[in-house]
Write a structure and sequence with these properties.
The chain is of the alpha+beta class. It is built from eight helices and 13 strands. A hairpin with a 2-residue loop joins strand 7 and strand 8. Helix 5 packs across helix 6. The longest helix has 14 residues.
Length: about 280
Amino acid sequence: MPGTQTTGNDDDGLRLFCAVAAALGRRALPEASLQSRAVFDLDAYLERIGLEGRPGIAEVHRAHASTIPFENLDPHRGAGVSLNGEDIERKLVAQRRGGYCFEQNLLLKAALEELGAEVETFLARVRWRANGAVRARGHLVLRATLDGEQWHCDVGFGLGTPLEPLPWGPGGEHEQSGWRFRIVAQEHELVLQTPDGGQWADVYGFQPLPSPEVDLMTSNWFVSTHPGSPFVSGLFIAVQDGQGRRTWLSDWSGALVISEQTPTGGETRQEPAREQIP
């Protein structure tokens, strides 16, 4: 449960977890810590997102969100997803690929820490168009603290991820390149919302209690290997630019579709043949 203290038995549990995963015939997660690598190549990361020097949190967040694509190619092909810092940096920076929420936000976490921020991790339940269903805590969110200010950071939601960080906690509406977001309090959770069909709709909700490393590893394993996970059974690739245009390729609706959407409501859609996709 969120907030539960971990003990020295966690390493034994992770070893058992890896052994069970291997016995089930799937690629097990590495036993390495999720902590950022000892020497994070900040210059290479900044070059990847088109920045240099010592940019601020908002500048890094926007550049990352509008440069590194969201994609689930590895879990979709049954390869598993490593959360080791060096593996993430190699994949998203050196190989110039994309990734999904755990990879994206852990890479951002490492970069912001290198820039002097304190960064905490939280697991959220996606509520977007859930129709009342309660989903697992399968999305990673960050809280970054720098110079006495706290920020809600998330570059990994895929279609609809905020371009810029939001002030931490409940507050007013924020417009970002035509898209609108706000954070509200609902009982014991903080909830990110965005308009949908003319009304504010929940994107995801989470308890404001930091999630320990073992919970991130477990959630990532579930999301990237469970047959019922949409990231295993379906394909989803998404990019957005700094002007707010969102483009995605997905078969989650049944047919393989390429769509493009703008904040003014414009949307295009085409259904390519699968053999047209590299």
